[in-house]
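Hey team,

Filing this mostly as a record. A colleague (T.K.) asked me to run one chain through the structure pipeline before their review meeting, and I want the input and output archived in the tracker in case anyone asks later how it was produced. No errors, nothing strange. Just documentation.

Input sequence:
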Amino acid sequence: MAYWVAEAVATLLAFTTITPAILLIGLLLFKRNEIQKVPPPLASLPCVSIIVPAYNEEKTIANTVLSSLALNYPKEKLEIVVVNDGSKDRTKDICEVFEKRGEIILVNQKNAGKGAAMNAGVRAANGEFVVCLDADSEPHPDALMKMLCHFTSDDVACVTAAMKVKNKKEFLSGTQAIEYVFSIILRKLLSFVNAIVVIPGPFSIYKKSILQKVGGFDEYNLTEDNEIALRFLDRGYRIHNCIDGYVHTLAPTTLSSLYKQRLRWNRGNIENCIKYKHLFFNPRNPYVGFLILPMFVASFGAVFTTIAFFLYNFTRNMADAMDYLWRLYMINFDIRPFLSALTLASTKEQVMYYFLSMTMMNVVYVTLSGLLIFILYAAFKHSREKISGYNKFSLPAYLLIYFPMLSLAWCAAIMHHIFGVKRQWNHKADA
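Output structure:
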C-alpha cells in the first residue's frame, strides 16, 4: 500500500513538470515570430563598462580581455574593468600588461568572492551600463551592440546573453553544451512573461542606476546571479534576453567539478527560495509565483521520489534476476523449450502487455521527454547550432543519463541544507 501511495505522489510531482513544458511550447508557437525579432537600433550609443571578476584565471583572462577589446563598439565609449580578487597565480601580472597599455582598469582586492568583486567593479565603473563577464568567457564581437537594443523601456534592469560552450567537443562539457543550448530558447521564452530567475555571469548587461538602486550584488550569497534576478523581479523590474547576443564560456570537464558547481547552484537556489518566499503564489508576477518557483520546489520532490523508486526497483529486480539465474542453473541453462514455444502472436501479446502495464508515472515521464525533445529541437534551430559540432556521445548522454546524474547534486543540496552542513564557499569568481 505504501508503495502505491508513494508512486501516486511521485506521479503528481512529475506531472507538475509537464505544465511548464506545455506552457513553453505554447509560448514557442504563439511567439514564434517574435523570438528572432530585433529591436530598433539605439539613437545614441551609451558608455559601457565591462567588469571582469577574476580569481586565479591566468589561463583564460588574456583571451577574455582580448575578446572584449575586439567588440564592435566605439572604443571611446567602452571601458574594461578587471577586478583581481586576490589571485595567487599570474592573473595580476597578465592584467598589468593590459593596464600599462591603457586597455583596462585594474582593481586589486583581497579575496572576497564574485559578488564583492562585481560591486568593486561597479564602484570603479564610469559607464551608464555595466556588463558582468566571467573571466573564462568570450563575447561575440556583435554581442554588445545587439544586446543594448533590448533596453526598450526604463524598467528593464538587465539583458541576458545567449550562452554557448566553447569546449563542446569533449564528452562531459559537450553534454553540458546541449543543456546551455536548451537554456538559450528557455531564457528567451521566459523573457516574454518576465520570468527569468537567473542572470548568468557570462556577459549579462545591467543598467547601472537600477543595480545601484537595489543595493548591488549580495556578497554573501552562494548564487548571486539568482538572488539579483529575484530581487529585480521583487522590485517590479524587467529582465530581457537577446537570443543572438552570443557569448562562449567554458564548462566543467570533470565529474568532480561539475558536482561541486551544481551543489553550490542548487543550495544557493534553495536559500534564495526561502529568502524570497513571499514571491510564491504572488499575483504581481504570476508566472514566477505560480509556476517557476513552485515547479522548482516540486522538482526536488520528484527527484527524491524518483531516486527512491529506482533504488527500490533495482533491488527488487536484482533479487528476481538472481532467482531467474538460479532456475536457469537448475536446468543447465537449457532454454530451447522456451524458445520453441515462442510465436509471433505470443510476442505481440507480451509487447501489448508491457505497454498496458506501464504505470502512470512512466507515462508522465515519456510525455515529458517528448515535450522537452521538441523544445530542444527548437533551441538548436533558433540558436543556429548544429549537433554535428558536438561530441557524438553528448546528445544520447544528455537525453538518457545527464539529469539523473545531476539529481545526485540536487539531493545532496537538500540534505546539506536540512542538516546545516557548513557552506563550502567558493571564492573563485566565476565558479
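Quick notes for T.K.: The radius of gyration is 25 Å. Residues 1-431 form a domain with the Spore Coat Polysaccharide Biosynthesis Protein SpsA; Chain A fold (CATH 3.90.550.10).
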